[in-house]
Amino acid sequence: MTVLRWSAAVSAVKPGPQTLEARIDGVVVAHAPARSRSARPSLFGDDFFRGSLLERVFGGLRQQRMHLASQPLRLDVQALPEAGRPADFDGAVGEFIFSAQTSSSRATAGDPLTLEARVEGRGNFDRVHVAGLEVAPGFKTYAPAARFEGVDPMGVRGRKLFEQTIIPEQAGSETLPSLRFSYFDPGKQSYVTLTSEVLPLAVASAGQGGSLAAGLLPLRKDLGRLRHNAAPVFLRASWLGALALPLLTLSGVALAAWRRRRRLDPVRARTLAIERTLEQSLRNMEAACEKADAPAFHAAVRRALQARLGLRLGANPDALTAADVGGLCADDPRLAASVRRLLEEADAFAYAGCTAGVAALRASRGVVLETLEQLEVRA
Amino acid sequence: MKPFLRRLAPWGLLLLATSAGAAGPAEPASEAASAYAQGRYADAARAYEGIAESEGVSASLYYDLGAAQLAAGELGPAVLSFERAHWLAPSDAGVESALRAAREKANLAAFDTPWWRPLRDVASPDGWALVAWLALALGCAGASLALLPPGRLGSQPRTRRALHGAAFAGAGAFLVAALACASLAAETSRGIAIGSDLALRIAPFAEAESRGSVLTGEAVRLEERHGDFVRVRADRDRAGWLPTRSVGAVDPG
Description:
The structure holds 2 protein chains of 2 kinds. Chain A is 34% helix and 26% strand. Chain A is an alpha+beta fold. Chain A folds into 3 domains: 16-74, no CATH class; 87-208, Immunoglobulin-like (Sandwich), CATH 2.60.40; 268-378, Four Helix Bundle (Hemerythrin (Met), subunit A) (Up-down Bundle), CATH 1.20.120. In chain A, strand 9 and strand 10 form a beta hairpin. In chain A, helix 3 (266-291) packs antiparallel against helix 4 and helix 6 crosses helix 7. The longest helix of chain A has 28 residues, at 237-264. The N and C termini of chain A lie far apart (130 Å). Chain B is an alpha+beta fold. Chain B has a 5-stranded antiparallel β-sheet with strand order 6-5-4-1-7. A two-stranded antiparallel ribbon of chain B has the order 2-3. The radius of gyration of chain B is 24 Å and the shape is elongated. The two termini of chain B are 41 Å apart. The relative contact order of chain B is 0.09. At the A-B interface, strand 10 and helix 2 of A face helix 2, helix 4, helix 6, helix 8 and helix 10 of B.
């Protein structure tokens, strides 16, 4: 008969009566030898070795599912006592010894050291925790990393190591504070708190020729802000877009200022007003011509000529009369004569009550337009 | 909550999340520092490379990586890491000192730095980019306010002079920062020879004939890439093709 054993460590997490029961659901694979069937009933039943003729002659592998269960074990789990429970107790139960040591008793400021805390013994190592050096003045500390080295396959006996990186920040003779570890000893039925020895540490300054001379550089304590895209910002399109923002703002403000100044320029404003007067006068002239309204026609002609002369000379159009034309168009006597004649005609129609037909007005319109064109070209 | 604050809330949360995420990986860094303390320098270097791969990079990370590589005797990669740290934090005296030590250990000649280089190195590439933007914003703001109608901002001559001064100062600072950025941009093609195969080939093929070589840790200019090779140019007019795995760009971006 073959006996198979499975061992496992259990740790109770709930006080009170508990039942332990082992169950195995598995498949048994057995070799069926090429021999005659025994008359004796098989351990696994008759069907187990019953196979084909070929299997019975040459043998074969047979498998069968099985469901096994042990007799239940009754356990009375006692609760851990509340009285005397240390603040740093984290559920460790067993028998342990505790020690701590540094990788070196001499160091250079800025050089990392390893502080190793060791818990050895027998118990539930999954609940064994050592906080390590948390806040120590003059030291930069990192979170400890735990590692378990079991002696037995169940993990009940062994040692758990807590390695913590510490970096002394200043030179001088330092001492590392002792570490604590608390557990419940079921043999003594009491809590036990173990403390490590105070560890002396001589720290030399980095300038005293420590690590650099030895080829080792002191590591940085803080890695700083990590980023995946380390390309310079100025090579990114977003930076160029950000640069465009103030430039666009300035361009907008400059454009608005230019438009405002243009709008407020008195010379330009007067020029625009005269141009509007000229356009209106030409429209009135056309309308009066169609209606054969000679006074209105000549009044419009006078305003148009005054406007064109005002634009050309930069003078007030309303102040220009026929008497001014000679001086204003001194370089072109023919043009001056034409302008003067038109203005005089306008005066005659305005003040002497003269009349004219459509044909005469149309003829005058041609002369007026030609004169205005000449004045514009010369301007 | 007011609508304005409600709109800002997601951005605030995003900023908080970004800040929290950027705090850095304490545990892998601890493992790397622990390996370094125990003398397992190559393990420490691999751990720092893992952090760079998964969490991102910083000048201090490259410094620590370079320290581990230097201790492990990986001189070319150490020089590259210190160069990258120097690229990200050019005013860091510790990085500069470590870079000099690594170059000396790799038997490389000291750099002949131009006179303006220390001036440019007062700020990082991102620092210069920020200065350029702020200077441009200052200049444009000064000029924009100076262009406003006199009644809007007060017609005091002193105010006008101050605005004109701000505009000119901003324009000048922008010019300086833009020159620094242009100079830095020209250096993004810098590389460091790191591999063991440092023969300068005349063509981008493994079988191609070589005409000289570069030293591990030597600075080169990356000119052109072709397949698994990159054309580099070193000082003394040496040029040729190196396998891409044998050279690393100083700009980690």
